[in-house]
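User: Can you write out an input/output pair for a complex, sequences first and structure second?

Assistant: Here is one pair. Inputs:
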Amino acid sequence: MLFNSIPFLIFFPIVVLGLFLIPHRFQWIWLLLSSYYFYMSSNPKYAILLFISTVITYASGLLMEYSNRNPDEKKKIFQKKLWVTLSVTLNLLILFFFKYFAFGVRTVNQLLSVFHLQTVSVGFNIILPAGISFYTFQALSYTIDVYQGKVKAQHNFGKYALFVSFFPNILSGPIERAKNMLPQLYQPHRFDYDRVKNGLLLMVWGYFQKLVIADRLAVMVNTVYSGYSRYSGAQLLLTTVFYSIQIYCDFSGYSDIAIGAAQVMGIRVMNNFRQPYFAQSVVDFWRRWHISLSTWFRDYVYFPLGGSRCSKIKRYRNIMITFLVSGLWHGASWNYVIWGALHGIFQVISHMLKPVRDKANRFFKIDENCFSHRLFRALFTFSLINFAWVFFRAPSLRDAVKYLSQIVTRFNFGSMFSPSFFKLGLGKDDFMLVIAMLLVLLMISSLRNRMNLREAVARQNLLFRWLVYITAVLSVLIFGMYGSNYTAVPFLYFQY
Amino acid sequence: MKKHIMKVILFFMILFAVIGGSSYILSPKPDPVYQEKKNSIDVMFFGSSMCYCTFDVPLLWQEFGIPSYNMGKQQQLPSLTYYTMKDILADQHPKVIVLELYGFSYPTDNPEVVGPGLTGASLDIMRMSQCKTEAIQANVPDQSKWIEYQIPFIRTHSNWKSLSLSSFTGIDSLNYKGFASYFKGVPSQKPNQSVLNDEQQKMGSAKKEYLYKIIALAKQENIPLVFVKAPYPIRTDIVEMTNTVKEIAHQNQIPFIDYTRKFDELNFDFTQDTRDGQHLSSLGAEKVTRDLGKYLQTTYHLENKKGQDAYKTWESVTQQYYNTRAHDVKTK
């Protein structure tokens, strides 16, 4: 079930109403049943994998707790390591099989064909189960947290199953941590006017980002990327910028709907985005982009590798490994690996150049906090991120390289003003609308960077508040790209 | 808590009112036929675009005093004609129904091939009713899309790009109780009479099913049916399909008028009587309607209702039509 579908608009109010009406002791059961219904409505078979992953991580938690009682410290550590390793390995094996097996076979075949050897055929198709990368990581975080003693093992299987399958998060995150989420799921969920209102507002904002901006930009991005050789460099450059905004609005929109939906039900889910394109550096970008995933990699990959408390070389190695893995997590393709590598390289270079940069700033007496400097850094960072997104979006590595070279070799600024500009998929009306909506996005993002916007609106008088709320809902309903007059665009992060 | 509940109720009432208003502006309005007084229409025309371009409602009023209404809709399949007819007959009991037959010659039975926009053009103008639900279920093969026809706003919200004054008022100034006038005729070729044969063509099962349903509905309502084929289009396949319908009409004692064979009788002017070589211009429509009007009035003893208070709207629409026409001729 998709957030941007009519079934969800029926499902969600029923779940919320049921949750507030039933007694506390049954609330988690209601949420568990709702979550499995939500997950199984797309393909019931996938629930088997979800269940297996839940059983493995649940059992590992109990086994580690049991091992903790072992008076022999050596045996205790050995057993705990065994259980956590088993749990992580089994979960990753499932993930690897469904996500990377076909990629592995493809890569092996490419290598074999280089040496003119017979290629391998597997004889079956593997379909990626929805949300597997997200719920696997969420479940793994529980296993590792229990191992590290950050959380206690959950004894009630049903309650734990709810943590893994909680419907707002299951398909595309945010990837929550047991420490934050587990206790909340079983607390009483009562109706709270302000909380419900704020949650609904966040959902409306999420729908706005997704349906009004991201899906509209998707039309142009898809048109241009599917035949980029026909377009000028200037048009390709604009499309690259539009893709950066599309993927942000798509994923941030999804996250806001998920966080808002959880908030309506009384569950605080971690923030996933914090105005990432205002970032001052690529390092800063990763503190603001897909926060639940970047902190996951930080806690469970980068820190265990040694993090930054080691030699410079090792630190750079750790950054590169973390971002290569992050790239691979996004998809089974070399494009994602290169994308991850680029982000790693940007950060390594940034660290290496820091002393030079600091010296230059001191020499030229540059105030690092002045607006112009911050703007320049934000634009420079945005350019780097844009560059990397081309590898993320292009159908293949070769296409990405051709696309980038065409931006330089066929840059024709005049093409932006030719009538053919409106043949890039978006008509004049839609183009003008999306530009206006991008200004709204920029304004709201700037305000959110400085204040809690929902609270600020809540302080205004009733007429203004209601005007804002009604305008927001109406904008989504009128300008949203839904219904059969538009082609529905699935949330981009569903494929990861 | 009570205060909150009241506030929430008030907020959602305002929100739904605003959404309802937006939906009204952006969606096709229910056909104005639903606003006509009950049982006030004596002749109703049903069919495709050939229907709304051929049967001239103002002329029937002006020359015969017959209050009529044209329910022709663009590329309407017989399956949609049936439900449109069924829904309207709940309010109206015309003395005769005229069915234009071009819809039976469409190469497809599948509403999806006709196109969801056109299916929508027929479905969206129906009021909310059980009949509309049945029409949707019968004409929209994809069940997941049914809700988009029950609540057209889901599809039509994209109409913000093409807002016009009529979006707000619901008044289409070129529409005269369903008759779509087009004053400027273009030269067309005289149809090749050699295509007029007596062969018959097999009719698609859905079209056949709905043709018999239309016949049964008219019988059940005790309303005489007249089958009419407009002068255009003329092609071998259309002529043969028309012959098939003619056979069924004879079997069911339904009068049948084929204007594809009456060009000379109509004194048809091929320089100006069509608007595009297919659909009739106002001048062509006038000739066909005058001929049909005579037939209807004498056969069904239709009373001349001119001057009666209950039919003021026919008078005003007719005046408006002829004023516009006179102005259009002057400015040409």
